[in-house]
């Protein structure tokens, strides 16, 4: 017997997006798009008549969610009449006392994993299947995922693990020794936001829609079939937008126009119109070029663009100080050299002082 499945995790419905520099209107749009990708997952399950939809934690951010949001999830999952849904809670939607997971009247096709201190076993006889899983309660508790994975399984059945975890620190609540998972026919994991295949049967799907600039590359869900000693799966891209980081390495002889052109051609027209871009400006910049003007001009060509400044101006501070040792510029450089300031910020402040004093000379 083989069972078909869709495996997702880390959708993060209701996320507030306060960790990225976007407007409140844009945050609201991103929250809407998370619901859209969730609906895509439902549609994909329905269109492919999946036997199981496996949701391995952090489906929703409970800190920002309301009862109506869980009710909305419930109504969507209710439409999957031919698909059984398995949900394990993660660290962002923990199964604490008072959790809406415990309040909602879930339809018969939805199984919420309620155990938090041991692996829960759900036997589904008609599919010759055992589902194992645990939900997260509190990361500050003494509970350790790795300590509950030593269970005996019925090798005559298909055995699937659904759990939210994975951490480098062996003392962390979410640490998993992946060797302990070899006994399962498939491990539907969550928490790692990049699509990661530990082994053929031990997999993280990653976030189906990227959440910030740390989440580049393909985003989606896994679709496959599992049986005894049989596993087949493919990655299905789903994301509507991407977060893209590009480096622009400047040289001291680059003109304003050349720098702007390099920034403008960081992506194709379709991508510039829908995706989020972060441009890292590095290298050297002629002191007569004002980078803020380039940034303002570049904004016209992107749906969203932000910058990280990691360059240096071509500026001989020692020579400038020597030439101006008896005036305000020289004294300013001397004073600022006594405090801890990032080189670029120091260069900017000195250029600003030089510009202001130059204006005063012209005006007088």
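Q: What amino acid sequence fits the structure above?
A:
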């Amino acid at each position: 017997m083989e069972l078909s499945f869709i495996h997702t995790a880390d959708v993060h419905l209701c996320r507030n997006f306060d960790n990225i520099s976007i407007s409140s209107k844009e945050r609201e749009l991103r929250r809407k798009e998370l619901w859209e990708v969730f609906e895509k997952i439902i549609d994909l399950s329905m269109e492919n008549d999946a036997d199981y939809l496996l949701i391995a934690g952090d489906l929703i951010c409970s800190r920002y969610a309301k009862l109506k949001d869980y009710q909305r999830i419930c109504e969507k999952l209710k439409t999957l009449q031919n698909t059984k849904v398995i949900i394990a809670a993660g660290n962002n939607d923990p199964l604490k006392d008072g959790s809406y997971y415990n309040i909602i009247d879930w339809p018969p096709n939805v199984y919420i994993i309620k155990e938090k201190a041991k692996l829960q076993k759900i036997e589904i006889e008609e599919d010759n299947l055992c589902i194992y899983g645990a939900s997260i309660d509190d990361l500050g508790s003494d509970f350790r995922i790795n300590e509950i994975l030593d269970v005996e399984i019925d090798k005559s059945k298909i055995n699937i693990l659904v759990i939210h975890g994975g951490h480098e620190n062996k003392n962390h609540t979410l640490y998993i020794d992946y060797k302990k998972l070899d006994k399962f026919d498939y491990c539907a994991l969550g928490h790692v936001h990049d699509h990661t295949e530990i082994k053929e049967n031990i997999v993280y799907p990653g976030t189906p829609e990227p959440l910030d600039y740390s989440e580049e590359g393909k985003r989606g869900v896994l679709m496959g079939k599992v049986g005894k000693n049989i596993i087949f799966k493919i990655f299905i891209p789903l994301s509507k937008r991407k977060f893209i980081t590009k480096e622009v390495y400047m040289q001291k002889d680059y003109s304003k126009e050349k720098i702007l052109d390099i920034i403008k051609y960081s992506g194709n027209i379709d991508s510039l119109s829908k995706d989020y871009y972060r441009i890292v400006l590095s290298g050297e910049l002629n002191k007569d070029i004002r980078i803020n003007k380039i940034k303002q001009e570049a904004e016209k060509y992107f749906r969203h663009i932000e910058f990280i400044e990691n360059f240096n101006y071509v500026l001989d501070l020692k020579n400038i100080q020597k030439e101006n040792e008896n005036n305000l510029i020289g004294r300013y450089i001397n004073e600022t050299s006594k405090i801890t300031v990032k080189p670029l910020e120091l260069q900017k402040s000195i250029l600003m002082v030089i510009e202001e004093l130059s204006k005063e000379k012209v005006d007088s």
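Q: And what stands out in the fold?
A: The longest helix spans residues 24-47.
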